[in-house]
Amino acid sequence: MSVDEIDEMSPLFDAIYEGAKHLDLTLETLISEYGPGQYEMTIRYRNLMRAADDVIIAKRLIRTVARRFGTEAVFMPKPFGTEAGSGMHLHLSLADDAGNNLFADQADASLSPLMLNAIGGIRGTIGETMLLLAPFMNSWRRFASAMYSPASDDWGVENRTVALRVPGTPGKTRHFEHRIAGVDANPYLVAAVTLGAALDGIESKIDPGTPCTDEIGQAKAPNDLPRHWLDAIDQFGASDFNKRTLGPRFHTAFTKIKQAEYEHMALKVSAAEWEYYGFSI
Question: Which of 3, 30, 127, 130 is deepest in the core (most CB within 10 A)?
Answer without folding.
Answer: 130
